[in-house]
């Protein structure tokens, strides 16, 4: 880390010069002339409060970042500290009273809701070392148009796109003969939802209902909505900016809802609420679950649980347990879906999955008293060295192309999926806050359907699902436009 600090210190000396040529961005030309916050002069003897996510704290990355930054900027008297706030703190409420952080790390939809009230600042991102390494698709998540001009309010750090996590050592011994019909050396059940569905049925039947194949809390809008998007659904129209055009029922989205209902039928009732979300780490580790879906940044949490399980059940030392866990825990791209929307259709055409995702990044509070120092922190935290370390410790998918290329594997795949449109980034407008409750209510009800008595089941036809999704669209519209 000492060598990395030395390499990073060099940009401190030129940062002030780089900032100076940009001046200030704001929400209008007159305000920009009147208020120049990014002057190029680093504030001295200031303390920056940094809001990071809990996983970064738990895995030790945040402490490393603070130590490295503080050593690099010690001569300026600039000190970055943990804001000691909940990771979902509300800047809109806290900032005006001086309680908010100076720098925030959150998902794009959480950060960009603050643009309307000018709670976060537009940034001179062209001057940051990461600028040319981040794709336009990632920058778009933090871009807003005001007065015919685009302003960027956040700096992408990592791409959140769902991955399929599974246990390689739980594959059947004969998978090469019975579960690799395309003979590509990859188990069919991690390439196609039809095969994962079939395998899940087999696992549940053979275990008498004590073990499961694929398990996921289906009420979770973030993960379940992707099944709708894969068949033509969307959140808002006009690229996510038109909240009057709500599209969860658009296209053949009802096929995606039918897929979800079929998946629920091979799970248990834990899929109705957040039970699986909470216990997935331990259940995958003890072999109750074969596979689940979640984001890249929790890879290390699965790894820890599996290593502990090997230490407990196989009496392995820590080094050997982690080596075995790393060998058997696999994070794969999301399987392909049947074009028909029927998981029993194992021989039909397939379509790529399009999953909801997000871009986590940094923003700077409009209430900070040290904007130049805050920008220096963001530049440091998004440098090649620090993003590489974040990837190493947390298993993130870096938004920086150079780090993603170096990491290879799924980091490159997820970046490619984003650019190919296979990750539908959460809209960066305030109205997105109104989608969660109506969708969650529907997905929970849908997951419950296979466990109802036959005469009480509500979603046995595509038409019934289409009507239910149209009702979801109407509820979201009302929450955004009518009730307000």
Estimated share of beta-strand residues: 5-15%
Proportion in helices = 40-55%
What structural category arises from helix and sheet content?
alpha/beta
Radius of gyration: 24 Å
Number of helices: 21
Walkthrough of the structure:
It contains 21 helices and 15 strands. With 484 residues, it is α/β, with parallel strands linked by helices. Strands 1, 2, 3, 6, 14 and 15 form a 6-stranded mixed sheet that branches. A hairpin with a 2-residue loop joins strand 4 (143-146) and strand 5 (149-152). Helix 12 packs across helix 21 (462-482).
Task: Name the features.
single chain, 6-stranded mixed sheet, 484 residues, 21 helices, globular, 4-stranded mixed sheet, disordered N terminus, alpha/beta
Brief characterization of the structure:
This protein is an alpha/beta fold. The protein has helices at residues 2-20, 29-34, 54-58, 61-72, 91-94, 108-112, 136-140, 175-178, 193-207, 221-229, 237-240, 253-264, 275-285, 299-314, 318-328, 371-381, 384-394, 401-407, 410-419, 436-448, 462-482; strands at 47-51, 79-82, 103-107, 143-146, 149-152, 155-160, 163-167, 212-214, 242-246, 289-294, 329-332, 337-338, 350-351, 355-364, 423-425. The longest helix has 21 residues, at 462-482.
């Amino acid at each position: 880390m000492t060598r990395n600090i030395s390499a990073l210190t060099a940009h401190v000396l030129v940062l002030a010069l780089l900032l100076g040529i940009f001046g200030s961005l704001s929400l209008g030309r007159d305000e920009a002339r009147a208020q120049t916050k990014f002057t190029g002069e680093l504030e001295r003897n200031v303390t920056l409060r940094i809001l990071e996510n809990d996983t970064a704290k738990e895995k030790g990355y945040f402490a490393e970042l603070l130590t490295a930054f503080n050593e690099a900027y010690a001569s300026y008297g600039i000190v970055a500290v943990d804001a000691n706030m909940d990771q979902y703190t509300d800047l809109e409420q806290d900032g005006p009273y001086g309680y908010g952080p100076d720098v925030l790390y959150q998902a794009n939809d959480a950060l960009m809701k603050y643009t309307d009230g000018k709670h976060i600042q537009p940034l001179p991102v062209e001057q940051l070392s990461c600028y040319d390494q981040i794709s336009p698709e990632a920058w778009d998540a933090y871009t807003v148009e005001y007065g015919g001009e685009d302003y960027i309010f956040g700096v992408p750090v990592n791409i959140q796109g769902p991955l399929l996590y599974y246990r390689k050592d739980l594959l059947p011994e004969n998978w090469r003969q019975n579960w690799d019909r395309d003979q590509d050396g990859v188990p069919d059940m991690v390439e196609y939802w039809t095969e994962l569905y079939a395998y899940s049925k087999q696992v549940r039947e053979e275990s008498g209902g004590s073990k499961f194949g694929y398990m996921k809390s289906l009420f979770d809008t973030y993960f379940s909505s992707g099944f709708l998007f894969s068949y033509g659904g969307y959140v808002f129209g006009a690229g996510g900016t038109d909240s009057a055009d709500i599209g969860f029922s658009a296209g053949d989205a009802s096929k995606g809802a039918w897929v979800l209902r079929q998946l629920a039928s091979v799970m248990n009732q834990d899929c109705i609420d957040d039970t699986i979300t909470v216990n997935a780490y331990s259940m995958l580790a003890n072999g109750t679950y074969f596979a689940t879906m979640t984001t890249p940044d929790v890879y290390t949490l699965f790894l820890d649980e599996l290593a502990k399980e090997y230490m407990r059940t196989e009496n392995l030392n820590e080094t050997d347990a982690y080596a075995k866990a790393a060998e058997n825990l696999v994070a794969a791209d999301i399987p392909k879906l049947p074009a028909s929307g029927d998981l029993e259709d194992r021989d039909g055409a397939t379509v790529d999955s399009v999953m909801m995702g997000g871009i986590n990044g940094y923003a700077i509070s409009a209430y900070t008293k040290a904007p130049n120092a805050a920008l220096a922190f963001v530049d440091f935290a998004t440098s090649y060295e620090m993003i590489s370390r974040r990837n190493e410790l947390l298993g993130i998918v870096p938004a920086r192309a150079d780090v993603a290329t170096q990491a290879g594997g799924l980091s490159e795949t997820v970046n490619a999926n984003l650019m190919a449109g296979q990750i539908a980034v959460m809209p960066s407008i305030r109205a997105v806050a109104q989608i969660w409750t109506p969708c969650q209510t529907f997905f929970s009800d849908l997951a419950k359907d296979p466990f109802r008595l036959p005469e009480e089941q509500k979603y046995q036809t595509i038409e019934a699902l289409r009507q239910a999704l149209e009702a979801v669209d109407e509820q979201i519209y009302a929450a955004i436009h009518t009730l307000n």
